[in-house]
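Hi team,

Filling in the usual template for the complex we talked about on Friday. All components are listed, including any nucleic acid strands or ligand strings, so the model treats them as one assembly.

SUBMITTER: L.P.
PURPOSE: interface mapping
COMPONENTS: two
RESIDUES: 450
SEQUENCES:
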Amino acid sequence: MATVLQFPANISTLNNYNDLYPDWTQREVSTGTTIMAVEFDGGVVMGADSRTTTGAYIANRVTDKLTPIHERILCCRSGSAADTQAIADAVTYQLGFHSIELDEAPLVQTAASLFRDMCYRYREELMAGIIVGGWDPRRGGQVYTVPVGGMMTRQPVSVGGSGSSYIYGYVDSNYRPGMSKEECLKFTAGALSLAMERDGSSGGVVRLAVISEQGVERQVILGNQLPKFSTV
Amino acid sequence: MSEEMFPEPEWLSEEVKTGTTIIAVTFDGGVVLGSDSRVSAGEAVVNRVMNKLSPLHDKIYCALSGSAADAQTIAEIVNYQLDVHSIEVEDDPLVCSAATLVKNISYKYKEELSAHLIVAGWDRKKGGQVYATLSGLLTSQPFAIGGSGSFYINGFVDAEYRKNMTKRECQEFVVNALTLAMGRDGSSGGVAYVVTIDKDGAEEKCVLGNELPKFFDE
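RESULT (copied from the run log):
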């Protein structure tokens, strides 16, 4: 069930509401967010906005929510910033170790499973929605989504975060299987711009990453360069 | 105890809501309104073929969302008030008048009511118009969406709406938007009702489930 997640239900806000202190000193840091990943033939395109909020204050307006887990595996983080950073660090360690043991590049599915194991085991304490994307020699470009609660499923295109509710319609209607890398980039940038326009917890710049056999290619699209959709 | 052995189904005590997706779009010469057809009480669907596009006058319709009882009552009251008004002025009412009547009720009773009506129609003075009356505000817009399913199509309508669409393009836009929303919102579903209003009158159409457009994952 996708709902507009302004604040997670299980976050305890401090009971003493004091007019002397601004709201954001008593709020948890949350990556409000819109994140997205799309598979194409030969790799994946991953994208995210760049806003981190504590209540109404934007703690970081240029956040990098695309976190490297391994050489050709990235994850998009949404939910509690602390939780997702901690999980990503733990999985990076575990995957690094596993890859040394195996003496070859890890599978994207392995990375996703590690995320899933942690998110499911500690589901009561965590608030984390993660999309894992990457390229491996066995199955090419893959996107796995591990939403809040700890399920894992592979999808050709996946969106997440509070801003994702607004773009389900756009994604459903504009995605076609077999898009090229450039089409995927345009599609992702467009979707993220639309979500950032409508969701108060998403904004800033659009960060994109393309993962393929050649490696990881990153770009940033600044605010004034975002695609415009005129509705007037 | 017998009450515990056979607990009453939740939906008997849940309020009946039109979960809903509603949309209204202007084109040059008129408006197109669209809605889904699902009415839910908790998890149960109590009516799967409800027409949420309610006539307020010959060329003015409103789209209902929120609490089914509240929305229907507002529509009936405004229908009556608009009839009286149009007899007094001896002319067809303006869409703006209809929208103002809806807004007056929504605003005055905003604490008690939980319904959102989109008013749309055609009049001689300004042609096709769409008014949103959420929580008692009144605003004229090129198009408006409402209901729980509308969250999912915000991005879609922002991207796909263009000014000066033809009547045909508007109808397709409305059906696509409704289909996408019904695909993602559990409280919206069933068939799509589409009403097209222009200077010649109002034309009602029902698009059945199997005739709705299909998207990549079906």
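MY TAKE: Chain A has four helices and 13 strands. The longest strand of chain A covers residues 128-136.

Thanks, L.
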